[in-house]
Structures are given as C-alpha cells and as structure tokens.
Specification:
Strand order of the largest sheet: 4-5-8-6-7
Helix content: 25-40%
Distance between the termini: 50 Å
Order of helices and strands: EHEHEEEHHHHHHHEEEEEEEHHH
Number of helices: 12
Strand content: 15-25%
Largest sheet: 5 strands, antiparallel
Length: about 325
C-alpha cells in the first residue's frame, strides 16, 4: 500500500474542505477519498488499483447514522451500518427487500463495518479492473480497452454494457433502492446540497472511468425511500456459486402491489447481470394490469432481458437472470402481508 495522509472530519464542512480539490477527476478516482467502513477502499488500495493521497474519515460526522420511519417513508443515514439496517424490525416488516439485500451481502463482520453509502458506491469485482497488471481496462485507465471482452468473463454483465466495458455491478442493497424509487441526498464542497433519484446515481458504460454523477468532494448524507403499497410485498433473490459470502451471478429485487391477484404496480431492480443497478422497466410494463402467475412472470422476465448482449463465457446469464426474476416475482406474490 502506498503512503497516504489521514484526516478525521468532525462535521460536514470539515469533511468537504478536506476533500476539496481543484482536480476535475470523478469522485471515485479523486486524490482525496472519504472513508467510513473502508471495507472495499482499503482492499483496492492494497491491490494498488486505487491510489488516493488523502483519506478523510467521516465516521464522526453527526446526524448521518439515524434510521427514521414515518407514514411518508423511510430515511436512512449514509453512515448507518449494513447490519443495523438489516436487523431493524420495522424495515424487516415494512421494507423486507431492503433487509434481505443487506442480510445476503458479504459476511457478518463486513456488514458490521460497512456503511450504506459506501455500499452503494462499491466498485466492480472485475478481475481486470482489480489487477493493475492488466493494462487494458477503460475503467482504471481510460482509452486502454477492455480485456474482459475476449477474456475470462463468466461473471460479466449482459445489460447496459458497451464495447468500452462489460463489468458488472456486484452490490445488493442498490437493487432494492432502484426498485423502490429511492432518492439520494448529498452535500457539496461548492455549497448546498442536492437530491438525486437513485436510478440516476450510477452512470452508464459509455464512460467507464466515471461511475457516478457525484462531483469531486460531494458527500452522500442519506437515502429516502418513499412509502407505497408495494413496499411490504417485496423480496430479493440472489443466485450465486455458494450460499455464503459470495457475490451474485444474477439478482432480482421486486416490489408488488397486488389487487385480488392483479398487478397494479411492479417495481424491479436487477443486479450482477448489469453494468449498474438496473431498473427493469420493460418487465414492469409487461406485468402491470396482468394477473400474476408463472406465465406472466416468465413473459416479464423475457422482456427484461430482450436487450441482453453476451460475450463468450457469460452466454448463460440471460437465462439465469430470467429464472431469477421469475423466482423473485413468485416469492413476492406468495408473501403474507
């Protein structure tokens, strides 16, 4: 690991000032990085994939570790630990898909350390990105190419990709945020804050080096999940090589509003098969107004993957993704609420 400067911020302003830089690099590659749990950042620093000159510790920031539920929805502070949100009784009751995505992620030790904001900003597990000895990686070094296109790509994305990058988004919690129409609150070094629809937080594969719309020095302070008749009937299915401490091969977060078996509203987020947390709007449209059964679920899953593009070893993923989505839909339908 390379030498770095460590600073501990006492409040938002101190954190923003410490991270402020004239550099115009995107936040995930900027010379100053915020650190909370550090469960991925430190890993990437040890691999020499990320080389920040300064780490700004934000664990002491006040007001960003609260969980608040109201009739309007759920408010999650950016520094809430994954384990705390996963175990929260009201989240498990009213927003079960959130609790499930968090409980299925990583190990218990990591969940006890990792923050929600850090989790949604995690970077890809693509081996060509994580290993700097591979020169061709547009995400790490723009313009060098994508070694995964012709390489080992069994776990690479089939949705939202381009010829510049086929890396997959490996997180879980973000799929629930996409499905439930969450919003992200931030503060910026330039002053003031903004609210970003979660669907717009992550960028597309056309510019792999820039992974989010966050500006250098912009800090996530929390997430808002609006209340709705679909939040209680929500579920997450994660298919992986093994049941413990493994990233997904295909994941699906669904939230349904059913009226006498008919889908009045459907919310679907897909992960692992996609470049970024993926809102499957075509599948939602295919379900709305239909009676939910195996046939309609299968048709919706087909619609979700109509635009899939495969490369070599990941040719199996569209079928696995469809089957995963069907499982999630039927699991949510069977819930007693």
């Amino acid at each position: 690991m390379r030498p770095f400067i460590y600073e501990r911020a006492a409040d938002d302003r101190a954190a923003l000032l410490a991270a402020a830089s004239k550099d115009t690099m995107p936040s995930n590659a900027a010379p100053a990085q915020f650190i909370a749990g550090g469960t991925q950042l430190l890993d990437l620093m040890k691999l020499d994939t990320m080389q920040p000159a300064t780490l700004v510790d934000i664990n002491g920031l006040p007001g960003h570790s609260a969980i608040t539920l109201s009739p309007k929805g759920l408010q999650l502070g950016a520094l809430v630990k994954m384990s705390d949100a996963a175990a929260h009784p009201e989240i498990k009751r009213d927003y079960p898909v959130i609790a499930q995505t968090l409980a299925m992620a990583a190990s218990a030790q990591i969940r006890n350390m990792a923050s929600l904001a850090g989790n949604v900003l995690q970077r890809t597990r693509c081996q060509y990105f994580r290993d700097p000895s591979w020169a061709a990686c547009n995400k790490r070094d723009p313009g060098t190419g994508c070694a995964a296109l012709e390489g080992v790509n069994r776990k690479h994305a089939v949705l939202g990709i381009s010829d510049k990058c086929i890396a997959s988004y490996s997180g879980d919690f973000a799929q629930a945020m996409v499905a439930l129409g969450a919003q992200v609150q931030t503060v910026r070094a330039t002053g003031g804050g903004r609210t970003i629809p979660f669907e717009q937080l992550h960028t597309g594969s056309g510019d792999p080096h820039r992974e989010t719309v966050l500006a250098p020095g912009e800090l996530i302070t929390g997430f808002t999940v609006p209340a709705g008749p679909w939040t209680r009937r929500s579920a997450y299915v994660k298919v992986r090589d093994r049941e413990s401490y493994a990233y997904g091969l295909a994941t699906a977060a669904v939230a349904l509003h059913l009226d006498d078996g008919v889908v009045r509203e459907a919310r679907i987020g897909l992960g692992a098969v996609s470049y970024k947390p993926w809102r499957a709007k075509e599948a939602e449209d295919a379900l709305r107004g239909k009676r939910l059964d195996e046939a309609t679920a299968t048709a919706a899953a087909q619609a979700a993957f109509n635009g899939a593009r495969t490369h070599g070893e990941n040719a199996y993923l569209p079928d696995l993704g469809r089957r995963t989505l069907v499982r999630a839909l039927m699991q949510a339908q069977a819930m007693e609420i």
